[in-house]
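Subject: Re: docking follow-up (zinc ion)

Dear J.,

Thanks for your patience while I sorted out the input files. As discussed at Tuesday's group meeting, I've set up the holo structure prediction with zinc ion included as the bound ligand rather than trying to dock it afterwards. The sequence and the ligand SMILES I used are pasted below, so you can double-check that they match what you have on your end before we go further.
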Amino acid sequence: MTRQDSNQRLIIAATLGLLLCMVMACGKKNQSEPPKQTAEAEALQQSQSALPLATPTPRGEAPPEVVETLQGPDPAQEPFFNQSQQMTDSAGLNPVPLPVSNSESVPTAPPSVEPTVAVVSPAVVPSQVWVFGYHQFQTPKPNPYSITTDAFRSQLQFLRDTGWTVIPLQQLIGFLKNGESIPEKSAVITVDDGYASVFHHAYPLLKEFGYPWAFFCYTDFIGSGRAAITWEQLRMIDKDGCDVQSHTKSHPFLTRKGGKSPEAYDAWLKDQLLGSKEMIEQKLGKKVNALAYSYGAWNDYIRERAVLWGYEALFTVKGQMVSSTTAVSEIGRVIISKDNEHLFSRYLSQPLKAPESMQTPQMSSGQTEGTPYPQNSMPEAVNESAESVSEKSKE
Ligand SMILES: [Zn+2]
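The structure tokens for the complex came back this morning:
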């Protein structure tokens, strides 16, 4: 090899080395620059960083259907989810992977390639209450507002079998008035008027099931004859799962003024509402804070006076589900009668709202006259004055 050859080789090697260095430096520079993103992709990435991340989809596999972008509470904090659960797609048929919180699973590809978060927002089930109203039980004569003990037992059993919790009336009031917690599926059992059949037939069943209940009695009726419960019996059951409350004094249509002057009407209302309240308080030595309007008839003035005279909770016969947004001064009840007792289970199977056709006739605010009961099928005795009731008592 000549000296010239040797120099030429050195020059070639140096040139190649220089070229290699340039290529490497160029490559390094490219690596250090992030791929340009559109503003939209950046926004998507930012929004995703606040969301739980989906498991990256293996190549060649279709991404799971995107159901809904999570906007609600963080599933990690959400009691409705646990790691063993699988959510379903919008059709409810195909399982969708749960969000994964593991940071190693962060997808690195642009959002347009990777699936977005596939999460079904949990359906938050608010506490719901059905309040049922009864009148008489196992009467010898057919009566639209009397149900058999067999039917009543079936209803109580249905509540138990389907996970409904029967809560005391005062717990319902605490829920509506002070936001106290109650089970998601709660039911309240109330009975109106003050019939002896309640003592003989309903009370033993309610005691057997261990269910609390409320008894709205109109005080003129108590102890007035064989059909009526006595004060002594009331005193006994009030200490044994029953909460005796007011149903006025003589069970009138409170909305009917009957030609009275405003002053006379007010005095009469006071006797009906405050008079009955004080009578029960005195006889039973307890606090009375709830009123069920006789015939479910009321208006804003009556409600205002009832609150003034110490009632904390007012019950109508507007048959609809009660929720946390229900006013404590307007609590609807479903009155169970011969016409709808077979629908009892269907009321409870409607998680949000009973269809109109299943609801009992309604009284709305501002409606000042009328009866919630179907024509010609008012409960026996409650159509009549307390005096005639005692005369006609058969039970
Ligand atoms: Zn009544």
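A couple of observations from a first look. DSSP finds ten helices and 13 strands in the chain. Confidence is low (pLDDT under 50) at residues 25-123, 353-395.

Let me know if you'd like me to rerun anything.

Best regards,
T.
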